[in-house]
Design brief:
282 residues; alpha/beta; globular
Length: 282
């Protein structure tokens, strides 16, 4: 990806091409192409996109998978880029459970001033969940801490019953993760999430929480709202970034199509791999 002809790269996390196609013209002017991502989640995309060292690049990151402080999956951001700006660490909004795009803009502008001779990669977390226009605490999924994966709430008061339910879910979930079962389509994510509801377990993720509260149609509306929000801030940043600027995504997201939700490593679904490549010339 760094070999492409761009001066600055803007990455929208989890942005599907079809949703970008519908709404981008209200915010951006430029040339849109459909491209195939080199990964169906951030880690796969990161590893395939940046295998070497890119000393001409400053990476402004709201996503902790690309950071300068710890190794994530064998990847140390500080060894691949001139500098990684860890917006995910100091810019995390604990109420929203994410990094607001306005904070990413502030970090990008500061990086531009401090490194005027280098290219920027600016990685927003939106439209990836949590959805800023929707408050996940209403359905039992509280705000996340950036260093934690499992801050879940809403569990029942009977600890023994709760542990039993969790064990049942773990056994069924493990079976669905078996490669042969996965190829056969055994218990897609949507069915597993409904199973959690039946067992009285809390939502598995912010997307699961939004699905419970809003339904599939509401979930898609919340996703589109997250995309429109981040594009508003991208349009502001584009006003101050010179040269050729490309807006793209690391991967797409499944929003209930065929009972499928979210994304993962090594998937071949076009909805996860088809992403925008939007070029703006300044």
């Amino acid at each position: 990806m760094t070999e492409e002809d761009w001066d600055h790269l803007i990455v929208l996390d989890g942005c599907r091409y079809d949703y970008f196609l519908k709404v981008h013209a209200s915010f951006l002017e430029g040339k849109l192409e459909k491209v195939v991502s080199v990964g169906s989640n951030t880690v796969e995309w990161r590893d395939n996109s940046f295998p070497g060292n890119y000393d001409d690049v400053v990476y402004v990151s709201a996503n902790p998978h690309i950071n300068s402080t710890v190794e994530v999956g064998g990847f140390r951001g500080g060894e691949h880029f001139h500098e990684v700006v860890d917006v995910w660490c100091w810019g995390w909004d604990r109420e929203l459970g994410t990094v607001h795009p306005s904070v990413v803009n502030e970090a990008a502008l500061r990086a531009r001033r401090e490194h005027p001779g280098r290219r920027l990669i600016v990685h927003y977390l939106q439209p990836h969940c949590p959805y800023i226009g929707y408050q996940p605490g209403r359905s039992g999924f509280p705000s996340q801490e950036p260093a934690s994966r499992t801050v879940l709430d809403g569990v029942g008061s009977d600890a023994h019953r709760q542990r039993l339910r969790e064990k049942v879910y773990e056994l069924i979930s493990a079976a669905s993760s078996n490669p042969a079962m996965r190829r056969a389509g055994f218990l897609r994510k949507g069915l597993l999430w409904r199973l959690r509801e039946v067992l009285g377990l809390p939502p598995e993720s912010p997307m699961d929480a939004a699905r419970r509260a809003l339904g599939v149609a509401g979930l898609r509306h919340a996703y589109a709202g997250n995309l429109e929000l981040v594009l508003e801030h991208v349009s502001e940043l584009l006003n101050v970034l010179p040269g050729t600027v490309v807006v793209t995504s690391d991967h797409g997201d499944l929003l209930g199509e065929g009972g499928r939700f979210s994304h993962g490593y090594g998937r071949k679904d076009p909805l996860l791999l088809q992403v925008p490549w939007f070029t703006v010339e300044r």
